Amino acid sequence: MITQGLSRRRVILATAGTMLALLLAALDQTIVGTAIPRIVADLNGLDRLAWVTTAYLVTSTTMTPIAGKLGDLFGRKPFLLAGMIGFVVASAFCGLAQDMTQLIVFRGIQGIFGGVLFATVFTVIGDLFPPSQRGRTAGLFGAVFGLSSIVGPTAGGFITDHFGWRWVFEVNIPVGIIAVLVVLAGLPFVRSKASWRDIDFYGAVSLAGGVVPLLIALTITRDHAWSSPEVSGLLALAAVMLAVFVFVESRVEHPIVPLHLFKNPTFTVSMLVGFLTAFGMFGSILFTPL
Fold it and tell me: Which of 99, 110, 185, 279 is at a distance of 20 to 30 A from 273, taking alpha carbons?
């Protein structure tokens, strides 16, 4: 815990800044869905519609566990600040995109920093609060995510109709600036004795090598059969690389994903529930407006 010696005001400020960071990332995932039809019409990109989301998911899914481990090694504050600043800058470029290719590229960059944010905000709870208070605080953070799921689609539709789809991305800028200032003022920095030698490079590469082809394979099934060489090859590559990832993680000293956690049934079931919930929620958010 890093709250020992901190005033109550400082703890509240750090918590508020972290919650704003979560709001920044969560709101973006839900607010963009309702703007998709207008984006597609304006940029003439119906054939690449899925890539607007896939680019974000590929990079954020790959980056989340990596950034989480780096935060364990080197401290949360630098990664939280870098995630927010990068996310805001990428959002600004998304709003300035002139064609679908630019938007897809900028969404991929945005996903990198979105992954950093999601990996960091919830782990800050363990740094700020003792075990007796973490459950209640995690509930507050979960409420922020739930609020964004309700407000995001409505806000996205309103902003798109009255100000244009570009402002769906630009609205992240003022929220991000406020969050950065609050985190700078409230969240303390803890120096770490870890070095770059503690980074699990092989795990990071094998994880990326498994997740990226898997998500791309699932995306191109829109215009490729499941039995096509493209889909089959990508799925085979993903399976091999994920098997390599499991092999690497079971043997390194500082794994990105500690596999022993899955021996805990509570952890395993909660991960499965979270996966199924996100599967249904984000699928609905993306395709319902169409």
Answer: 110
Per-residue CA distances from 86 to 106, 125, 166, 211, 244 (Å): 11, 22, 18, 22, 31
Amino acid, single-letter form, for residue 104: I
262 occurs within a structural domain:
no
- Predicted TM-score (pTM) of this structure: 0.80
pLDDT band at 222 (very low <50, low <70, confident <90, very high): confident
- DSSP sequence for 146-180: HHHHHHHHHHHHHHHHHH-THHHHHTHHHHHHHHH
Query: pLDDT tens for residues 269-289?
Result: 988 888 887 777 666 666 665
- CB crowding 148-187: b at 16 or more within 10 Å, else e: bbeebbebbbebbeeeebbbbbbbbbebbeebbebbeebb
For 254: left if phi > 0, alpha if psi spans -120 to 50, otherwise beta; the answer is beta
Number of domains within the chain:
1
Task: Classify residue 230 as exposed, middle or buried by CB count within 10 Å of its CB (0-12, 13-18, 19+).
Answer: middle
On whether residue 169 sits in a domain, the answer given is yes
Host domain of residue 150: 1-193
Q: Does the structure show a pLDDT above 60 at 3?
A: no
d(CA 188, CA 193): 16
Alpha-carbon distances of 78 from 11, 119, 184, 214, 235, rounded to whole Å: 17, 13, 10, 30, 35
Residue 93 lies in a domain: yes
Instruction: Quote the Cα angle for 270-130-255, to 5°.
Output: 50
Q: What is the CATH number of the domain that holds 135?
A: 1.20.1250.20
pLDDT digits (tens, 9 = 90+) for 187-209: 777 666 666 677 778 888 888 88
Interatomic CA distance for residues 173 and 147, integer angstroms: 19
270: in domain: no
The band of 133, judged by pLDDT with boundaries at 50, 70 and 90, is confident
